[in-house]
Amino acid sequence: MNFMNQEPGGGAAGPTPVPNPNRKPPEIKPGTVRNIVIGIVAVIVLFYLGSTSFYTVQEQERAAVLTFGKYTHETGSGLHFKWPSPIQEVRIVPAELTQRITIGYREKGNTVTPVEDEAMMITGDENIVSADAVVTWKIHNIRNYLHNISDPEQFLRNSASASIRSVIGSQKLDYAITDGKTAIQDLVREKLIELQNKYETGIQIIDLKFQDIEPPGGEVEEAFRAVTNAREEKNTKINVAMKYENERIPKARGEAQALIEQAEAEKKSRVLNAEGDVAKFNAIFSEYVGNPSVTQNRLILETLEKILPNAQIFITNGDGDTVNYLPLNELLRKEATGDEN
């Protein structure tokens, strides 16, 4: 009778297998190893091709494609295919984005940090002035932007600072901090654009605006601020005076023209009256020449009527004893009423 082996725990167990020292492990065929290696290499190649042959360009970006390091073409936003590196490379730049840099200070969030080395400069009359500016720009030519300058932003900052120093260095301090700010700003913008074109940086300058042009702080700043306030007050008074002048001169011209027209009318009226008087006198004179006594008597009577409008006129002849009476008033009254009796 065979008894089964007992486990230490008292449970029954099957017979323990005994390894065969003469048994060989399964053999792997050489073709299988080759296929595995080829599969791994193929996966790696496909992953490499997929990761280097497709690229995505965002809306505000453009991509320059370089074939063996030479610029060939550009692509816009979207998903694009290229030959894998090192055959073709892609450099993506924010060509559709308007960018800005500051000169004389830096902004980080709500914090503004002055940069004295950029802001301080000497004017044409050997005074020190502080100038802060903002330059707005964008990429105009990607090929020039990537190949002609190594650090575009630093080049733009240096060229803007050089342009500002060049223009302010030829102006007087008083002019730079008062009336000349706008003119200096335009000159600096033109000079900065000229530098970008000269070196073919591919950068388009959209605008340049000064934030401040002022002398250094302290007593000098207070003195120039007083000068600026006085100049502004002067300009205000000049503008008020010019406004008053513009209001009064047209009004005075109108009044003068009215007086001239009134005098001309008075002149014409008097000339016409004088001509009428002359014509009347000539008519009376011609009648007087024909019959002087009658005309003379009539003139006397008309004059008496004007002098004594309410007097009764009697014409008598005192040569004889009998008074001859001519009732002129009754005759005139009858003549006026049309009574012929």
Automatic annotation (TrEMBL):
It comes from the Bacteria. One of its GO terms (cellular component) is membrane. The keyword Nuclease does not apply. It is found in: Membrane. The chain crosses the membrane at residues 32-50. SMART domains: PHB (SM00244). The keyword Transmembrane helix applies. Residues 1-27 are annotated as: Disordered. Belongs to the band 7/mec-2 family. HflK subfamily. HflC and HflK may interact to form a multimeric complex. PANTHER family: MODULATOR OF FTSH PROTEASE HFLC. This is Protein HflK.
